[in-house]
Amino acid sequence: MIPILTYHQIATPPASPSPFRSLSVPKAHFESQMAWLNRLGYQGLCMSELMPYLRGERTGRVVGITFDDGYQNNLTHALPVLQRFGFTSTVYAVSQRLGQSNVWDQDMGVPKSALMSEAELKAWAHAGQEVGSHTRHHVRLLQCSEDEARQEIALSKMELEDLLGQAVTQFCYPYGEFNALHARLAAQAGYVAATTTQRSRETVGERAAQAWFELSRVPIVRSTHWTQFLLKLLSRYEDRHDNAPKTRTQAAAS
Asked: What predicted TM-score, i.e. pTM, was given to this entire model?
């Protein structure tokens, strides 16, 4: 079983009772978690580099590292830590929100946080980290028409590729909301795989084509103690969760 870790912000959490404050992991906690991975012999990998291990083509002690939304603090706080340990990771960027903030959270009272600008996203990629897509506007795909969903999924890929001058092959569903149509649209757009907020470590080996667009992950949040972090890595702690898709709200509350 291979864990694919989910992070959002690497920053001091906002004051209680701010919504989704659990999605901000303090830098010191992130450093400690990456040190544990290194100590245990894990290699942290971006999604593209993880794919051969998921397919069973390569073997090794590996873990996927992903960041949703593309926050500026991923670059300033997470990148130096990743580089220290020789790890790679995937940040899922919102192509039409670069240089802005998490405007999709404002109606829920979540404090503003800066997203990477075009130049900062280029710096992330230049540093050897991967950029995946998180749609154009961080939309709720279940509320979009088929044509709207297709544009959000496909055009975000094209826009990021034009910006970076390299292929963007990984996708992540905003809010963790998706259905079979969205998985099919991601495949048609040319992505290789897509991650969800379903909770589990991932199995190794071949699987049905659509299953590559329903990859489960392991959430790491503000309150994840180091003992719990190890349980998530090394035991069936996450695998015991049912496989019904969970929204970002449900994942954060778990």
From this structure: 0.92
